[in-house]
Amino acid sequence: MNPARPPVLNSLPPHRRAARTLLTIAVVLALTAPAARAEKGDREKPINYSAETGDVNYLTKVGTLTGNVIITQGTLSIRADKIVFRQNPDNSLSASAYGNPVSFRQKRDGVDEYFEGYAQRAEYDGAKEFLELFDRALLRRGQDDIRSNYISYNAATELFKAEGRADAKGLSGDADPGARVRGVFQPKSDSPLSGAGKGKDGGTDAGKDAAKAAPKAASPDAPAAPLKPAGEIAAPAPK
User: Fold this and answer.
1) How many structural domains is the chain composed of?
2) CA distance 172 to 118
3) Which stretch, 101-110, 121-130, 152-161, 199-208, has highest mean pLDDT?
């Protein structure tokens, strides 16, 4: 007796067929590059933050900040409307950030180049050097970028992963990539074709388009307050 064979997609009931279709929409891209971790010295630096209001526990090193929030640690910076963060035992920073958009920026170790992420929500685990971006997500390294509604990036291994998910927040418009993964890899500087497609000022047309479409992050050099005990940040007094 032959073992039972898995059902063909077309023979599945409509509701199961729809679920299977949603699963097949997911597109995974694994892109490796020469090893160059995030800036190693960042976790040895103090964690600075500023916000309009906040609740920070000095003993547990856990806090919730709201209103034009900026958190920095060395070359790492996160900007959002709301950030829940903690200082890990190894002094690295972990955070859940929410905004329109959230912006994340950090220098690559040993390279004069940053990687940047933008999304409606971001989850960052500093101990694992792992960043997740949700909804209208854009991840850029140098002039290369990738867009989707879900992107993860392991800064320790430089492994990217993107999935074409539907927007969990129900956003719409040209900025929403929908259930697709899109990206651009610029020609390498040592490529014989690297000069192709340059404009009058020497920049590539694709690079200019990507720069125009990307959200603009505020300067990471804005002043930030040192970590303080809970209660020292309070809501502004009513007018």
Assistant:
1) 1
2) 16
3) 121-130
